[in-house]
Design brief:
This protein is α+β, with helices and mostly antiparallel strands. Helix content is 50%, strand content 13%. The chain folds into 2 domains: 57 residues, no CATH class; 91 residues, no CATH class. The strands form 3 sheets. Strands 1-2 form a two-stranded antiparallel ribbon.
């Protein structure tokens, strides 16, 4: 157990991010407070960051060929990550809707966190990054649903019984 210095609550160690420089290897802030702090920082410093980046790129101009190389490398990495994630999603049978069975287009499949308080990452953001054990573990916290069912889960109170039915088997 560890005390979060932000919310002053005693929480289990798994509720804290890793931080190698701390004595116990865990962050001083719980994941929830850490997310809130990160979000607030990004919002409050957005104009400063934009100004800094504009100034940086004025002094660090890239040639057109450098830009093309970077685009090419980024595209290859993105395609590789996409292929790896698709293999993982196929293995976990997460390419169709768990509620209605829709499977015509993967583009219409969303991922719904069954327990939002356990959410560490947005699955949509993870799918553009390299798969790691930590990121793959996040998939255990979600069900795959089509866009229509996902909207209904969030907005239609009477629709939640379907999700409970799917989760219970």
């Amino acid at each position: 157990m560890k005390l979060c210095i932000e919310c002053k609550q005693l929480k289990p160690l798994e509720d804290f991010r890793t931080l190698s420089k701390s004595s116990d290897g865990k962050s001083y802030y719980c994941k929830e407070c850490s997310r809130r702090r990160d979000s607030n920082f990004r919002v409050s410093h957005s104009t400063e960051r934009k100004t800094y980046m504009k100034k940086y790129w004025k002094t660090h101009k890239r040639t057109e060929s450098q830009k093309e190389i970077q685009k090419s490398v980024s595209k290859r990495i993105h395609e590789s990550n996409k292929t790896n994630w698709m293999k993982i999603l196929l293995e976990k049978n997460m390419v169709s809707c768990s509620i209605c069975g829709y499977n015509d287009s993967f583009a219409a499949i969303d991922f719904h966190h069954v327990n939002p308080s356990e959410k560490e990452y947005s699955i949509g953001q993870l799918l553009i990054q390299k798969p790691t054990e930590l990121r793959i573990a996040e998939l255990e916290k979600v069900i795959s649903v089509c866009a229509n069912c996902h909207r209904r889960l969030h907005f239609d109170k009477n629709f939640n019984y379907l999700m409970e039915k799917v989760i219970s088997g």
